[in-house]
Amino acid sequence: MKHQILALLTVFSFSAVGFSQSQRELYNQSTEAYKAKNYSLFLKLTEKLDSIRPLHPTFTYNLASAYALNNEKEKAVSVLEKLVLTNNKVDFEKDADFDNIRQSEAFQKVIQLKADLDKTVTNSQSVISLSEKDLHPESLQYLKKQKLWLASSIRQKKIVSFDFKTGKCSDWFTDSQFSTFAMKADAKGKYLWVATAAMPEMIGFSKEMEGKAAVLKIDIKTKKIVKRFAVEGGHVFGDLVLDKQGNVYISDSGQALIYKIFDDKLSVWLDLKTEAFNLQGLTFNDDQSKLYIADYLKGILVIDVQNPQNKTWLKFPKGTTTKGIDGLTFYENSLFAIHNGVRPIRVIQYELSEKQDSISGFKVIDNNRPEFNEPALATVIKDTLYFFGNSPWTAYGKNGNLDLSKLENPMLFEFKLN
Asked: Contact at 8 Å (CB) between 105 and 74?
């Protein structure tokens, strides 16, 4: 059974994530050590792999096995718990590697946790479905002055306005070269800032576009691009936020960088390549003294805006996982995180300490909902959290073709925060 699990996970993981040759070699050495029953070496190599790539499905499973085989029972159970919190469909219960801990109370608690994660928690409500089935929305924005709802599109490389009662869509902006991700309007409602990136899933993608990204500054009145801030070479601009002075902060999941647009110039504000893996959503606290940014593997980093080198990775409470956070939104001393990189998908409210530099508690808002495919970015409007619940990332086939039979029309959800 163990080798079957390894084989299945390896096919997925190595094809989906670009590993270096040295990491492949290290992994092969670890499996050879396992086959030779050299469990001390198996543990040493697997710990190293886990440090290089935390919460990888294969490495994490093997790490739990290695601890169990070396009679480090508490560590084995702890890693199994982490594994289940990232994917509760992993079949580990009958694996002989865990024979020495199978009857323990801690092991049985992990099995119970796996079952608990199958329970459905429903707090947000479906509001409307958009009329464009193949839109593939990523984010939404409400323009107060115009009383207009907007949705960005990965597939169609555009922004649509939509009727909040009927869901009927109309093209609002169609001049983007790349997929449109996050959108934010400035405080005066004059400009809409849009993060864009070349994605294989967008119509018209070519290999020459790969790694290109741009932030668009759009005049809301004319719907024309005022300025385009572009970069090339391994970049994906996924989310952005604006401060009260109109400066723009952008997350780059391609190279683990945070950019800043100040005085109409784009530059790197903070280089996180040595400590982060895949940057996603970012959000300010109310007084904008702190910037929170999600990493798809490591969790949430809180950064002192005035001194960016003063930064801390938040410690997550027991029963939660750092993995798979995409959208991140601050509201009244809490962070609302959309975990779409775990199974089951969940939306969690992380309560912050008084100093807002640590997590004091959490509440599961949604868990294991059949309507959710891959919710992405969220926004807060009038004490309500809004997000699209079924972005169709899993409905794409080879060459970026979208299989319409595998998706429903985009569904907008809301959660009353008060």
From this structure: no
